[in-house]
């Protein structure tokens, strides 16, 4: 009997990609697509859904987790699979008894493993059984309808633009992220990134020069990025000095 699957992701290209891969896998029927948690709950309440493939970060950073908790309250609760670009929510997914946690970008082979787990009578719900690539920090960004994966060492700094969008300035160019700067900071802190201003997060390893500026502040010259310097606001000076060792 085919497995009835619901795809939930706020990005149309991500939903389309997942749906196309499922077309190549036997015994899978995509019964619906939703762009947020509320739509997913309404759909699953009125349709026969065996499994929900659910993004974590949608309108809010953890909307997928909130939606999953509601879906579990249904009398015919579907099995849960998280599909996301962020590894740090794996433990929370485990707490919600997720069957799997799949990192973007997807592959047919990886999703076939997920389907195999879904069809088991007692699928594993241990974070150690999730994707073995959860360890390294990666930053997914959409560009020209493609999901690019940026490594921390590629990123010079991250800034908020006038529209409060996070812009990742990298060796490959500038990319806009849907994540707020605060969440990006939490994700990249372990990779040597430091907040230097309410609108800037800098890769300390990329700092080439520290230029004293007005009111005991600094301007940072970034190695490999001649176009823009990074400010260090007075509020962040003490933490910056400690990180640099001055």
TrEMBL record:
Keywords: Phosphoprotein. Residues 139-246 form the HTH LytTR-type domain. Transmembrane segments: none annotated. One of its GO terms (molecular function) is DNA binding. The modification 4-aspartylphosphate is found at residue 55. Residues 4-119 form the Response regulatory domain. InterPro entries: CheY-like_superfamily, LytR-like, LytTR_DNA-bd_dom, Sig_transdc_resp-reg_receiver. This is Two component transcriptional regulator, LytTR family protein.
């Amino acid at each position: 009997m085919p497995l009835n699957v619901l795809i939930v992701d706020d990005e149309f290209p991500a939903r389309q990609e997942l749906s196309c891969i499922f077309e190549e896998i036997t015994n899978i029927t995509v019964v619906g697509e939703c762009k947020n948690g509320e739509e997913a709950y309404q759909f699953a309440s009125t349709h026969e859904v065996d499994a929900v493939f659910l993004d974590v970060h949608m309108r809010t950073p953890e909307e997928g987790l909130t939606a999953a908790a509601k879906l579990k309250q249904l009398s015919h609760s579907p099995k849960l699979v998280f599909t996301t670009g962020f590894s740090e929510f794996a433990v929370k997914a485990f707490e919600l008894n997720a069957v799997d946690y799949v990192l973007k970008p997807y592959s047919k082979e990886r999703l076939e493993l997920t389907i195999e787990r879904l069809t088991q009578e007692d699928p594993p719900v241990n974070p150690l059984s999730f994707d073995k690539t959860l360890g390294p920090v990666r930053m997914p960004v959409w560009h020209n309808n493609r999901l690019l994966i940026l490594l921390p060492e590629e990123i010079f700094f991250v800034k908020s633009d006038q529209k409060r969008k996070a812009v990742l300035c990298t060796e490959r160019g500038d990319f806009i992220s849907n994540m707020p700067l605060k969440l990006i900071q939490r994700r990249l802190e372990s990779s040597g990134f430091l907040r230097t201003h309410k609108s800037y997060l800098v890769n300390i390893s990329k700092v080439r020069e520290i230029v004293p500026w007005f009111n005991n502040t600094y301007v940072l010259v970034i190695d490999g990025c001649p176009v823009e310097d990074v400010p260090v606001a007075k509020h962040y000076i003490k933490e910056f000095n400690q990180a640099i060792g001055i």
